[in-house]
């Protein structure tokens, strides 16, 4: 059967272009863009010992955190630039190309790319049983960064050089929050597409998705809604569920008595459009991802809107959209789980952020069948009864109290967002204190500013990168700690 972890090849293509990101439950792990560089400099994989628990000096357990280092341009007096890894396995990509690389080359910087605890090869515990996941949180991850910086400054014998951190998506949060929590170690941060406002019921996500489709073409949004309405109608009775199975080539007939099964199917369909909007880019035919998907959804030559949707979804192998199969697969606590990244990230959403992209808005284009309760049940099914609505509510409140929510008191942090990106709804899009540069890029999407300029980039994106370079250049030139 066609497992959820490998379904819909175009989704994996989209995610392979951009290396950051919150993803839906069917997205493949993000793979960073690897660009052949004329330099033959070897970027080395290294390891550093970290405390398992930074906040209990009686706990002397250590583990090895992975990072990459590029000293190709380091001149002995340049700044230290660090790309922060998030919920993915790091590669050498952002030490070979991209915005940070360009800035580092200009300023003779020492450049690093750190891997977030529990992700990639940075495995501090024996397995991912819920009790072993207690050290998977942003508090510990930020302390990892602080210890890393202290160690590297000691090794370089450079205690007064500026440190600038970069991050996108969740690691964009980390970039901003590391500056907030450790300003004596970090002199500036770029937080790209960073949803620093934790929110359990993130219904606004699909509002932005709908708006982005509507901005491209009103008819596209209408046809998507028509197709979704038909799917919901089919899921209201057994005969309709059988039609759905045949139309989408599902491995099993949907269980219409299970709200989790229904929610899983509707969420899966919605993610097709969400991922296209979130990672919108120019494709090989010169058109945007949104344009190409909408072209299929508006093509009346291939049937009604539901039939068009089925053509987009249907594959020669059956698609496993069975909720129980998902829970069984993702309950595997071994590091050998193919989609271990998603087991770990879902845990963080259950215990810190929420970020659940629900259908709670009554005017939702994508129906009403994956409300907040669907995601809370997922937390319980994957990790146990302790991971409940009460825990989620307390966790989200704690994150916002600890780090400022929608109003963090920051300076020397650049917040960049594309207005096409659904995550900008939880980020900082207005400068509230005069010291936090905010760049909202019209027509751009998720973390696009972190990459190297391309001929296909829109003018607003190119200008945004120019402004970012100017600001960071000023920070480096001043070389002052605050």
From TrEMBL:
Gene3D superfamilies xrefs? alpha/beta hydrolase, Serine carboxypeptidase S28, SKS domain
Name the Pfam families on file.
Peptidase_S28 (PF05577)
Q: Does the keyword Protease apply?
A: yes
Q: Name one GO molecular function term.
A: serine-type exopeptidase activity
Q: Which residues form the signal peptide?
A: 1-19
Q: Which superkingdom does the taxonomy of this entry point to?
A: Eukaryota
- Annotated keywords: Glycoprotein, Hydrolase, Protease, Signal
> Which InterPro entries does this chain map to?
AB_hydrolase_fold (IPR029058), Peptidase_S28 (IPR008758), Ser_carbopepase_S28_SKS (IPR042269)
Q: Report if keyword Hydrolase is assigned.
A: yes
**Swiss-Prot/TrEMBL GO biological process terms:** proteolysis
| Similarity field | Belongs to the peptidase S28 family.
Name of the featured protein: Serine protease K12H4.7
| Gene source species | Microctonus hyperodae (Parasitoid wasp)
